[in-house]
Amino acid sequence: MNFYTIYRLILLLITLYGLLQLTINLFKYKPYYEKIPVWMKNYIFHHGGKFLWKKLGEHRRDLIINGLLLAILVFLDIVAFIY
Protein backbone atom coordinates (compact mmCIF):
# COMPACT_ATOMS: atom_id res chain seq x y z
CA MET A 1 0.00 0.00 0.00
CA ASN A 2 1.56 3.28 -1.07
CA PHE A 3 1.17 6.76 0.36
CA TYR A 4 -1.44 7.84 -2.21
CA THR A 5 -3.74 4.93 -1.35
CA ILE A 6 -3.46 5.70 2.36
CA TYR A 7 -4.19 9.37 1.65
CA ARG A 8 -7.32 8.48 -0.35
CA LEU A 9 -8.55 6.15 2.37
CA ILE A 10 -8.09 8.87 4.98
CA LEU A 11 -10.07 11.32 2.82
CA LEU A 12 -12.81 8.71 2.41
CA LEU A 13 -12.97 8.20 6.18
CA ILE A 14 -13.19 11.96 6.77
CA THR A 15 -16.02 12.21 4.22
CA LEU A 16 -17.91 9.31 5.78
CA TYR A 17 -17.47 10.86 9.23
CA GLY A 18 -18.89 14.15 7.93
CA LEU A 19 -21.91 12.34 6.45
CA LEU A 20 -22.47 10.53 9.74
CA GLN A 21 -22.33 13.82 11.67
CA LEU A 22 -24.77 15.41 9.21
CA THR A 23 -27.22 12.53 9.65
CA ILE A 24 -26.96 12.70 13.45
CA ASN A 25 -27.57 16.47 13.40
CA LEU A 26 -30.57 16.10 11.09
CA PHE A 27 -32.20 13.66 13.47
CA LYS A 28 -31.21 15.77 16.46
CA TYR A 29 -32.87 18.95 15.13
CA LYS A 30 -35.89 17.30 13.50
CA PRO A 31 -38.17 17.89 16.54
CA TYR A 32 -37.37 21.63 16.41
CA TYR A 33 -38.15 21.75 12.71
CA GLU A 34 -41.50 20.03 13.22
CA LYS A 35 -42.54 22.75 15.71
CA ILE A 36 -42.31 25.48 13.03
CA PRO A 37 -45.78 26.49 11.79
CA VAL A 38 -46.71 25.33 8.27
CA TRP A 39 -47.11 28.86 6.90
CA MET A 40 -43.59 29.75 8.06
CA LYS A 41 -42.11 26.59 6.48
CA ASN A 42 -43.79 27.47 3.18
CA TYR A 43 -42.50 31.05 3.36
CA ILE A 44 -38.94 29.91 4.09
CA PHE A 45 -38.96 27.32 1.28
CA HIS A 46 -40.47 29.73 -1.24
CA HIS A 47 -38.14 32.67 -0.57
CA GLY A 48 -35.11 30.49 0.13
CA GLY A 49 -35.60 28.70 -3.18
CA LYS A 50 -35.89 31.97 -5.09
CA PHE A 51 -32.75 33.29 -3.41
CA LEU A 52 -30.83 30.11 -4.16
CA TRP A 53 -31.82 30.07 -7.86
CA LYS A 54 -30.93 33.75 -8.16
CA LYS A 55 -27.44 33.13 -6.75
CA LEU A 56 -26.95 30.03 -8.91
CA GLY A 57 -27.92 32.06 -11.97
CA GLU A 58 -25.41 34.80 -11.10
CA HIS A 59 -22.56 32.31 -10.77
CA ARG A 60 -23.60 29.85 -13.48
CA ARG A 61 -20.41 30.20 -15.54
CA ASP A 62 -18.18 29.62 -12.50
CA LEU A 63 -20.21 26.58 -11.48
CA ILE A 64 -19.95 25.08 -14.96
CA ILE A 65 -16.17 25.60 -15.07
CA ASN A 66 -15.73 24.15 -11.57
CA GLY A 67 -17.96 21.20 -12.44
CA LEU A 68 -15.93 20.43 -15.55
CA LEU A 69 -12.67 20.70 -13.64
CA LEU A 70 -14.05 18.39 -10.96
CA ALA A 71 -15.13 15.86 -13.61
CA ILE A 72 -11.64 15.95 -15.16
CA LEU A 73 -10.07 15.49 -11.73
CA VAL A 74 -12.30 12.51 -10.93
CA PHE A 75 -11.54 10.98 -14.34
CA LEU A 76 -7.79 11.37 -13.82
CA ASP A 77 -8.11 9.91 -10.33
CA ILE A 78 -9.89 6.85 -11.75
CA VAL A 79 -7.23 6.46 -14.44
CA ALA A 80 -4.45 6.76 -11.85
CA PHE A 81 -6.15 4.19 -9.64
CA ILE A 82 -6.55 1.67 -12.48
CA TYR A 83 -3.01 2.01 -13.87
Characteristic key phrases:
0% strand, mainly alpha, flat, 83 residues, 92% helix
Structure, described:
The chain has helices spanning 3-34, 38-58, 60-82. By secondary structure, it is mainly alpha-helical. It has 2 domains: 1-35; 36-83, no CATH class. It starts with a helix and ends with a helix.
Tell me briefly what this model is.
By secondary structure, the chain is mainly alpha-helical.
E-strand count: 0
Low-confidence stretches: none
Overall pLDDT score: 86
Query: Structural class given helices, strands, pairing?
Result: mainly alpha
Helical amount = over 70%
Number of domains: 2
What's the helix-strand series? HHH
Query: How would a crystallographer describe the biggest sheet?
Result: none
Rg computed from alpha carbons, rounded to a whole number of angstroms? 19 Å
Please report the number of helical segments: 3
Chain-wise SSE layout:
Elements: H1 3-34, H2 38-58, H3 60-82
